[in-house]
Every structure is written in structure tokens, then in C-alpha cells.
Amino acid sequence: MKISFSINGQKKSVETDGDTPLLWVIRDMLDLKGTKFGCGKAACGACTVHVDGESIRSCSFAAKWAEGREITTIEGLGTAEDPHPVQQAWIEEIVPQCGYCQPGFMMATAALLDKVPSPTDEDIDNNIINVCRCGTYYRMRKAIHRAAEIKKSNTNT
Amino acid sequence: MSEDKKSKKISRRKFIAGTLLGGTGLLFGATYLGRHSLRRTMFEALETMAPAYMGDVSDPLMWFEIFKDNRITLHSPKVEMGQGTFTSLAQIAADELNVDIDQISVVHAASITGNVDGLSTGGSLSVAGLWQPLRELSATMRQMLVLEASKKLGVGANTLSVEKGVISGSGKSITYGEVVQGVEEWEIPDTPPLKDVKEYQYVGKPIPRIDLVDKVVGSPIFGMDAELPGMLYGAVVRPDQIGATYAGADVSEAKGMPGVVKIVEEKDFVGVVARSMTEAENAKNAIKAKWTVEKKWQTEDIDAAIKVGAGEPNVIQLHGDEDVLLSAEDAADASYVTSEYTTPIGAHAQIEPNGALAHVEDGKATVYISTQVVKITRDEVAATLGFDAENVNIIPTYLGGGFGRRLHTPNAIQAALMSKAVGKPVKCFFDRKAEFQNDTFRSPTHHIMKAKLNRNGMIEAISHDYSSGDVMFGSPMFPAIMETILGADAGALRGALIQYRAIPNFTVTSWKVKLPFSTSWWRSLGLLANTFAIETFMDELAEKVGKNPVDFRLAHIQNDSAGNRLKAVIRAAAQKSGYVDEIRSGRAMGFAASTDGGTPCAHAVEVSIEDGEIKVHKVVCAMDPGLSVNPDQVRAQCEGAIIMGLSASLYEKMYVDDNQLRPVIYGAYRMALMRNSPKEIDVVLLRGQETPGPVGEPPLGPIGAAIANAVYRLTGKRSRSMPIEV
Questions:
Q1: ipTM (interface pTM)
Q2: Is B223-294+354-429 a domain of CATH 3.40.50.1000?
């Protein structure tokens, strides 16, 4: 079937089985490789993207559900030249190790900050539930608080 | 050409088509064959000795590529799996090449360049092992460029100096990028004297990771991101049973499924090639593979196999009189103490599954892959296809986690065979269930600790017996003959030896077991389990004699270089954490220390129990890796190792149910999440030697025991099994 949606601000149509996980549409049909495959069962969060501003796990989200909606991936969050506050904070805290799970965490964090601009440690614990095997959680927590500060100061100026 | 120069002419083209292959010798000499006391000497040496880098270091041109615009690319034979090696290597090279770090980029050396590590990326040896060779290569490269510049400028080499990759003297100057233009043959000069560490601009500084931005914007740098034109997708049916041998398949249904290009039936596996990942997976699930299984295993069978007393014993450490313990055991008086410990099967659970993109065409193979063993991957693909090694190019990518999981890469062979079958590039990856069930697991272990205490509350004799499956043994990296020579698995013994060498009598015995499933390297190998046993036991002994566990440890450490460095990290962790035995505000502290590869590390943790769950609030880590090339990344390794070790100690456990390894998904295989990670991690770095030592694994050692010791203070009950429960 033909599925049309907006991704990172661009209108796209793809021809695929409607049950294909959105993850593979993003990675293999649209060649946006920043969204990662980890488990295929929505258990690790490496494939987290935003659909209409909500963070979802794209490995378990059928492509047909994306019809007419707005998708954002890590590539649409920010760039090297113009990073999103979350990416800026990740750079300042030197968070990534292997880096594979990091886009999923940054997408989950960006969605959290949209809802809870100044998250407490408890908010972070309850909402950031992706898996990182390198154990970068300690720096990630610092980066999430820092991202909240950067975002606030960007809004104020 | 003067006599003292290595008169070797190298064509510039050699860089592109190098033939010198890595692997200059075995890890260990054969002189240790035979007598047990010699074996034991070797085991102690093994524990502290960092094997040198095992690749070709004769030719700087294999390592550095210099571009006209004065950028330099370092082709690294060590892979980047998160440990920050690329950044440290760039720092080292920049300092000896006299260039800005921004001028250097680091890429994985493709195997066809000849810059291939004879061993692997692992063992915390990338920076430590390349410290000397890379400085020498960089200094030699600089000297080559200066000599060539001298010719081009007509200025004596002695009067030339280099800054930021610009060679100047006598009012003239030329960049490295300009020097290399038009040069077809290079002469490799003697290595000039290396700089003093104090002169370095980058080594020792917390330079931000050079792969930071790529990893923050989601650049396609991982094995799973690799693509080639016309690429198809493969999926291989993998067994869900232990000890399963492939015995054919019914592929009739899969054949006709949408997108299927070809079903590939080989002697030991069946796979499908399709137009998309989803179509390949769907068709794979429709294949009815047959497996023969000789025996149905259960968790109880594995527990029974991993028992001190079963399997093959080898005394790997013996100092003093072993009869002291035996007589104490016979007398069984109050001075005699014994305890048993166990650890479970552990999964790697790295987030990027294993897989490869292979293209076999015209007698050549190209494989993009996240691998820790470039040489073995190449040699295995070459052997399977019947190609010469020079015709197989392994292009390593960034690894989405390594941890030892990528020391075995049969997936490269399978992708290559499928590519050969369809004549197109094929990308083929494990699904998560297959990843969990076909892992090369951390072996379960069983330990018996015994001690005799004297009247002064000191240990007179101590012994550690441990049982483990293969760690280094059974790997293509490790020649089978070495199993016979060594007897005890050189990986399982990591952390098993007694580091308290002021104790008059101590002995360690390895009990080697062959398990029916694959066990292998898991970050830090035997260290986590062995330290859990030894350091929990030390805590028990300290308590029994009524001594502070920090002082008790210090009192049993010898006064030599290794002992003094161990004492220093113990004192540093105790002081920085303000270690006390008492419970304060519901929190108890726990302490443990270990030495791994010559790097001592001590942890002091603060723990409470909340809603029946163990909560680790704070970890103070003191470690002495010698010179920290990049202190920020050394800290990052400590933080990561602490959290990975905490996860393994508190939550992780595979089990065997009706011959299947389970669980098969994150969540069910519980791991530490954000909420379980300490909010405070305070790393104190000491510098007890002027060269870099191992970093990535040593800080994993003490965490399990430190937590168990804190939990005891809260509950009054000793936790002697991982995962630690209350």
C-alpha cells in the first residue's frame, strides 16, 4: 500500500506492506540510518522516534499507522552545525561510548523535555527507560538536566 | 645509504595493496611446557603482563595517510567499540607527529591494507599495547617527512623543525601535505628519540572524543548501517536448542513468500535472501529447519557441572605451605573459615546485533562488519570461500558494543556464502532471540574459599578453588595446543589469584569444565566472578576478627610495587568515600578491591534497600592505570564498567529451560536502567607508573563484592550468589 507522511519536515510517500515496521521504512527505504534496530520487540528503545511529537518505538509501530502524521528522527532533531539542546548537552557532557543506543535516548529525552521542561531525577527515572549496555546512564542524567537548562535559556533569549 | 639505516624501500602504493600480514608469534613461549611450578610462574606473569601489540609496526606508511591539505588519517588496527581508543590514538599520534589533533582523523584499517592486528581488540590492551609502537611509528613518520622536506627545500634536516604539520627552517617552509606529493618511494629511517611525556600537548588531557559529533547526530557508522548498491537482505535460521546440529530443512513454504530471491542451503545452515529485511525475516520464520539434539539440558545439569571438584583441576598459584589449610580444615576449629559463591550465565546483550554485509564477486570478497577480530574474520571467510587472504577485504565499522561478543564472527561467513549464492551484496543480521540464544556467554562459576586465621586476627593461609567453563579456550584466537600447555583457562583465571601476598600461605586451583553451549570472553572475563568470591570472603574474614575491612585488606598486602599501588587505591577510595562500617541514614557502605592486568582498582559503594530492592546511590572508584592518556575517557570507562558490573551483579541471569537458553529479550533479561544507576560516581585516578595500563575492564572487578558487602551490613545476611538478592 501507499503510505504518505511527513518526516523531518519533508513530505514522503512509500509503497510497502502496511504492517512493515516503521523502523525499516525509515532505515532502508528512506535511508535514515540514525534510528537503530536493537530488539524488534519495543524492549530496548534504540529505535525511538517521534510521531506527532510523541516518542514511539518504531520497530513495533506499523508503517500504516504513520499515514498523514509527522515523524521526527535523530536526523531531524538537529545537525552538527545546529544541534538540538539535547544533542548540545550530549556533546558537552561527552555522553556516548559505543554510541549505538544514543539516538534513541536523545529522542526519548527530547520528547520528555517537551512535556516536562525541568524534569526531576524521578521524572528521568520514570520516563527514560531505554537500554544502554555501555552504562552511560550516569552522564546521560547529567546531560538531561543540562539539556533542560540549555532549552530554557534558548527560549528566554 | 648509511649502514645504520634500515635500508628498506617502500612504494607509496604499498599502502593500498600491502601484503605484510599481522601475527608475528604466539602469545606465550613454549618454554613453560611441563613443570607445574613453571606453569604457575606463567599464570602470575599472565595476570600482570600486557602482551605487546601483534601487528606489523615496520612501516609507518601502513598507518598514516597524508593528504594534500595537510590532513592525516590514522588507519587503526584496533577497533572503536566505545572505549574511546580512537581518541587516545589520535592524541598519541598528534603529539609525536607535531600536528594539531584536529588535523588527524582515525579510521578502521581495512584488512587489505595489511595493517591487521594479529590478535584482537580486547583485554583492555588497545591504548596500553599501542602506546610504544604508535609513538615510535609517529616519530618515525615525522622523521621521514622531515628528511624528504630537507631534500625538497634544500635545507639540512637538522635545522628543520615541525609545528602543526608545517616543516620550517632557514626561512623556508613546507607542509606535510606538500612534502608527500610526487614521492613514490620512501626510506624508513631509524626511529628518533621519543619525547618526554611532559612535553606532550594532548597525551594526558581530557580531549573530547573525536567520534562525539558523529554519535550525537546519528551518522551511519555502524556495521548495521553499511550499504552497497544492489544490496539484498539475508536471514539465517539459528537453533534455539543447546547442542543442536543442523539436519536439513523444509523450505517449500518460504520459497514462495513475497520478496524472496533465494533460499540458500549450506551444509551447516539454511538462510534466505530477500529484497527487504522484513521479507527476509518473514521467510526465515517460514522455514522448518530440522536439528538433531543429543541431550536435553536443564539449569540443574549446568549447576551440577560447574562445581569445584568436578572437571579438571590445575593449581595455578601456590605460595608457602599448602598443608596449613588442610590441617586447619581437619581440625575445624574456630580459626578455620570457608564459604562458597556462585555466579550465573551472563549474556553480552550489546545493542547492535551481530551481522555483516558481504559482497563476493570475481574471486574477491568484501565484508563490512562490527568485529573485534579482523584477522580471524578474514581468515575464516577466506578459508570458507577457498580464497587467498589477500582477496578478502574486511572493513571494520564502529561497533554497537563489543564486550567480547564480537570475537566470534560466523555471521561473516554466512553473509559471504549467501552473497556468493545470489551474486549480489547481502546484509544479514541476527534477530534478538537468536542473539540471546546463540551468544558466547559469560560462564557460570562456582567458588570455594577457605582460610585459617591466626591468634592476631591475621590470615595465615587462604585458598581459592573455582570452577568455570571456557573463556579463552575454544576460541579460534587461541590455538588448541595451548589448552594442553596451559591446562587452566587463561581467561577464567583473570582476578582468580590472591592479590594479598603478605599472607604467608596461599593457593589457587582452577577446575576446568566444558559446557554444552558456547562460553567466552565477557568484558573482564573471570574478573567479576572471581573478585566477587575473594572480596566478599575478605569482608567475612575481617568481620570475624572484628577489624575494619579497609585496614584488614591493607594489612595483608605486600610491600612491593604492585602491593604499594594496590594499597594506594584502597586508601584513596576509603578516604574519598569516608568509608565507615556503620549504617547512616539507612545507607550502608561496602568495600572491595582487585587488580587486573596490573591495574589496581578499589570501590566504595553506598547502598540502601528500598521497597525490597537494592539501590546503589554512590560509588567512589579509585584506580591506578598508570598514565591516563585521556583522563575523561578513563573516567567514562570506570563509570560504564561500574554500571555494567552493577547490572550483572544485581539483575542479570540466563537459565536453561528444556534445552533452551532463556530469556530471549531485554526486560525479561533484566539489566540496569537509568533508575538503577548510581546518581553519584566519583572516580579518583592515580598514576603509579608512567606508561598507560589496562583501563576498560579493571573497574568491573570490585563492584559485585562491594555491593554484596554493603547489603550484608543492611541485612545481616551474606549474599554469596549473583545476582545478589535481598
A1: 0.98
A2: no
